[in-house]
Amino acid sequence: MPTELTVDEHIAGFDAAVARGADAAWAAGLDAPVPTCPDWNVRQLVAHVGMVHRWSAAQLTGTGDVVNGAELEAAGLADPDPIAWWVTGADELSVTMRDAPDDVQAMVFLNDAPPPRQFWARRQCHEATIHAVDALAAQLGRPPQADEAGIADHIAIDGIDELLCGFLTRGRKLAVATERRLAVCPDGASPSWTITLTEGSPVTVRHAPGTDIDADEMLTGPAVGLYLALWNRGDLHADASTVSWWRDVARIRWS
Fold it and tell me: Is the pLDDT of residue 255 over 60?
């Protein structure tokens, strides 16, 4: 299964992340730089994430083909209170995700994706969670430590799975000339993952807790720390060449 969490658990994670992110954005101020997204200040951050939430709601309501993301983001940037604009859109998305039927037909864009309602609840849970970390970084003036981020282990483990199985297996952007096997092993009774990189598309395998793993490089540590590090919001504790390689290739795009 792509995720062991329910739609309700993902929506609860989404709501909690929006609340954390909004509090941090207010505390930081709209002009504060975002250390984890160096090209943005807080105004740009909340305009982006508010756009994504509205665009995602449109996918679930069947109006995605008439929604223009650039226009939505421009509206957020121009709003006199862009943080409130973000939260309003997030509240509307939360209701949309709760009210959508289980068999709703909608676009999904990741490999290993669950059905559309579950996909969008999961995707927006992690969208909000990672960008709440960005808002906290703006408040602190530095990337937060894992224990400062307010992220539950079950959310982090699910987010690692979405990243490794859903995002990174699309296309050949991780292609390497010499086969390389990377393992991601959170502490405790958690699943683990191996990613086999070749000249083609990478292949990720999800392993049950307690499975013996053989890999060229192991990434281990607390689940939240790995989640942040794999999303380039924290430090990877690994060989320097692996860290450098990951920073070069792990640029996450929706398409």
Answer: no
